Structures are given as structure tokens and as C-alpha cells.
Automatic annotation (TrEMBL):
<dbReference type="Pfam" id="PF20463">
    <property type="entry name" value="PDH_C"/>
</dbReference>
<dbReference type="InterPro" id="IPR036291">
    <property type="entry name" value="NAD(P)-bd_dom_sf"/>
</dbReference>
<dbReference type="InterPro" id="IPR008927">
    <property type="entry name" value="6-PGluconate_DH-like_C_sf"/>
</dbReference>
<keyword id="KW-0560">Oxidoreductase</keyword>
<dbReference type="InterPro" id="IPR036979">
    <property type="entry name" value="CM_dom_sf"/>
</dbReference>
<protein>
    <recommendedName>
        <fullName>T-protein</fullName>
    </recommendedName>
</protein>
<feature type="domain" description="Chorismate mutase">
    <location>
        <begin position="3"/>
        <end position="94"/>
    </location>
</feature>
<keyword id="KW-0520">NAD</keyword>
<dbReference type="Pfam" id="PF02153">
    <property type="entry name" value="PDH_N"/>
</dbReference>
<dbReference type="InterPro" id="IPR050812">
    <property type="entry name" value="Preph/Arog_dehydrog"/>
</dbReference>
<dbReference type="InterPro" id="IPR046826">
    <property type="entry name" value="PDH_N"/>
</dbReference>
<dbReference type="InterPro" id="IPR036263">
    <property type="entry name" value="Chorismate_II_sf"/>
</dbReference>
<keyword id="KW-0413">Isomerase</keyword>
<dbReference type="InterPro" id="IPR046825">
    <property type="entry name" value="PDH_C"/>
</dbReference>
<keyword id="KW-0827">Tyrosine biosynthesis</keyword>
<feature type="domain" description="Prephenate/arogenate dehydrogenase">
    <location>
        <begin position="103"/>
        <end position="365"/>
    </location>
</feature>
<keyword id="KW-0963">Cytoplasm</keyword>
Length: 378
């Protein structure tokens, strides 16, 4: 009986393998079609990310899946993963060049990771790209001669000094920076250059495979009309632009970046000092705790100077950290008193403050946790 059952199982597995092969051929066909789409987008200057088209397509496929008795979420997960791959494939085709009459794009710090990413994107869009790195300052005047745009992509702590060191730029040249602090770099650029100036903050790391769905914050400086070509070029790369005053940006970054990184740093220090066994922690972690631990570990896999710059460059970072410490001490006092009622009351107040976002974040995190659990090994 066991042998018959085993044969039946093997037969079914063979059929599943055949279906998987069919799926592979369909995926290959889809990637080929995506390449054709990418070529047309390149020619016509259409952004690689079209949110309305994506939302409409997903809604239709979900409805069709439900009618066929296939879990709609399964179909959406598969399609989203395929679309992510599609965006990467479309990027490889290249992009339409928006400004055909401007001079070279000079990337100051172009040998760095983020500078290299933008150098690649400008090159894929048909611009002449020149790199001005720390060993090239003797040729800075020559490299910047006739430049259509000069992009500052250096560590935060060096940004203002590098801007002050720039040679005179052509009047029509766009001067911009890519740092995560905006007020001070903008002021420095406006001081040294009388032409168009803007600040950009790419809200992603240099390891992204595509700019599709990524956010770039835009802080206007001077002569907005003169750099609209650049903003349109970034849209074509697939990014979403979010405009904000520099002061508002820096205020938000104190909470979104500086405090979050500082908290992760402190937690990492705590784990080390407690001699935590990371392998054991992973074995006992549910997907959400595993993801949280991964986000802390991710911090320590990167350049400490980068995060020191992000945290220390924020003018109110110390005050924010003291506020956080005070809230932690308040919560600790509840724990010391064993005051569960006070804890629940505070919990309810914060939940009310989050409002509908709490449910939205619960739903979003559920999807992320499923993906994290799928990738678990062992």
C-alpha cells in the first residue's frame, strides 16, 4: 500500500514539475515582452513606473483569480515580484534623454556608491558623465567647464567644504546635492553659485536595482524652471518626487532617519553587551522579531561613518535623543510599579493617535512578514 501511495505521489510530483517548466517558459515570454515595452518607453520618454496601470492590472488579475478559485493574494504576490524584475529589465534598455542641449553632468564624489549609481543612470540616459573625486581637484576647472549639471555626492560632513571648493560654474549649470540633510547644503550652494540650485534626497541606498517606486525628496533652491528637465528625467527613471521645504525635510528626517538609526545602534550595543547568542535568537524568533533583528543587523553591515554623519549632522539630534530617553524612563517607571493599567491607558492613547494608520501598517507589515518567513532557511 505504501509503495502504491509513493508511486502516486511521484506521479503527481512529476506533473507539478511539468507545470513548473511551463511557468518558466511563460516567464521567459513575459520578460521578452517587457523588454519590448522598455524599448518603446525609452524611445518615447515614458516613466518605467506607471502606478495607475499597475493598480488597474492588479485589480483585474485579482478578480480573475477569484473567479477561477485561485487565491487573489497569491496572484498579486507573484505579479508584484515579476513586475519588480520587469523594472530592472526595463532599466537595462536605457532611458530617453530629456535635456538634449545641456553640457556634461559632473558627479562630485562619483567614485562613491551613490555617486556611481547616479553616474550610471545619467549614462543610461545618454548624458556625458564626468567624475570629480578627491584625487581630481587639480583638474576641477577643466572637468566643470561647460557643465550642464554638477551633482554633489559626498559624505554629509564634507558637503559644505566641497561646495565651497567648487570652481566657478556656467551660469545655466544646475548645482544640486544628494545628502540627507538639506538646509545647510542648500545655503552653501546658493552662496557659491548664482545659477539654478536644488537639493535632492534619494530615500534609498545605492544598492537598489531600480528607481521604480523609490522616493526622491526635492527641496527647491533657485530658478525652478531651469531644472525641470532634471526632475522629469528622474521621473522617467521611475522615482516618485516629493517636494518639501528644506526645514520641513530636516525636521522629518530627525524622526525618520536619525532617531531610528540611533535607536537601532543602541539596541545593537545592548545585544553585544548582553552577550546575546544571535543564532539562538533567530531560532526563537517569529517573523516579526526576525525582521526587526535583521533591520538592526543591517545597520552594522554598513559604513559606520555614514550613520554617524546622518545622526550627528542633525542639529536637534541630541534634544530628540533626550526626549526619547525621558519617554523610555517614563515607561520604565510603569514597569517598576507593575502598573499594567497605566501601560494600557498609554497604549490606547497612542493607538488613537495612530488612527487608521495603525490598521494600514498592520496590513502592510503582514505582507512583509509573509515574505520574510518565505525566505527563512532552517
Amino acid at each position: 500500500m505504501g509503495e502504491i501511495s509513493s508511486q502516486a505521489l511521484e506521479g503527481l510530483r512529476h506533473k507539478i514539475d511539468e507545470v513548473d517548466q511551463e511557468l518558466l517558459h511563460l516567464l521567459r515570454r513575459r520578460l521578452d515582452l517587457v523588454a519590448d515595452v522598455g524599448a518603446i518607453k525609452h524611445k518615447e520618454g515614458v516613466p518605467i513606473y506607471a502606478p495607475a496601470r499597475e493598480a488597474s492590472m492588479l485589480a483585474k488579475r485579482r478578480a480573475e483569480a477569484e473567479a477561477m478559485g485561485v487565491p487573489p493574494q497569491l496572484v498579486e504576490d507573484l505579479l508584484r515580484r515579476m513586475m519588480r524584475e520587469s523594472y530592472v529589465s526595463e532599466k537595462d534598455v536605457g532611458f530617453k534623454r530629456i535635456a538634449t542641449d545641456i553640457g556634461p553632468v559632473v558627479i562630485v564624489g562619483g567614485a562613491g556608491k551613490l555617486g556611481s549609481l547616479f553616474a550610471q543612470l545619467f549614462t543610461l540616459s545618454g548624458y556625458e558623465v564626468r567624475i570629480l573625486d578627491k584625487e581630481d581637484w587639480g583638474d576641477a576647472e577643466t572637468l566643470c567647464a561647460g557643465a550642464g549639471a554638477v551633482v554633489i555626492s559626498v559624505p554629509i560632513a564634507l558637503t559644505e567644504a566641497v561646495i565651497a571648493r567648487l570652481p566657478p560654474l556656467p551660469p545655466e549649470c544646475v548645482l544640486l546635492d544628494l545628502t540627507s540633510v538639506k538646509q545647510a547644503p542648500l545655503a552653501a550652494m546658493l552662496k557659491v553659485h548664482a545659477g539654478p540650485v536644488l537639493g535632492l534626497h534619494p530615500m534609498f541606498g545605492p544598492d537598489v536595482s531600480s528607481l521604480a517606486k523609490q522616493v526622491v525628496v526635492v527641496c527647491h533652491g533657485r530658478q525652478e524652471q531651469s531644472y525641470q528637465w532634471l526632475l522629469e528625467q528622474i521621473r522617467i527613471w521611475g522615482a516618485r518626487l516629493h517636494e518639501a521645504p528644506a526645514a520641513e525635510h530636516d525636521q522629518a528626517m530627525q524622526l525618520v532617519q536619525a532617531m531610528r538609526h540611533f535607536t537601532a545602534f543602541v539596541y545593537g550595543v545592548h545585544l553585544k553587551r548582553e552577550h546575546a547568542d544571535l543564532e539562538q535568537l533567530l531560532q526563537f524568533s517569529s517573523p516579526i522579531y526576525r525582521l526587526e533583528l535583521a533591520m538592526v543587523g543591517r545597520l552594522f553591515a554598513q559604513d559606520p561613518a555614514l550613520y554617524a554623519d546622518i545622526i550627528f549632522a542633525q542639529p536637534d539630534a541630541l534634544a530628540r535623543a533626550r526626549h526619547y530617553l525621558a519617554r523610555y524612563q517614563e515607561a520604565l517607571a510603569m514597569l517598576e510599579r507593575g502598573d499594567k493599567a497605566a501601560f494600557c491607558a498609554e497604549f490606547d492613547e497612542v493607538a488613537h493617535w495612530f488612527g487608521d494608520f495603525a490598521e494600514q501598517f498592520r496590513s502592510e507589515s503582514a505582507n512583509m512578514l509573509m515574505v520574510a518567513n518565505d525566505g527563512r532557511v532552517g
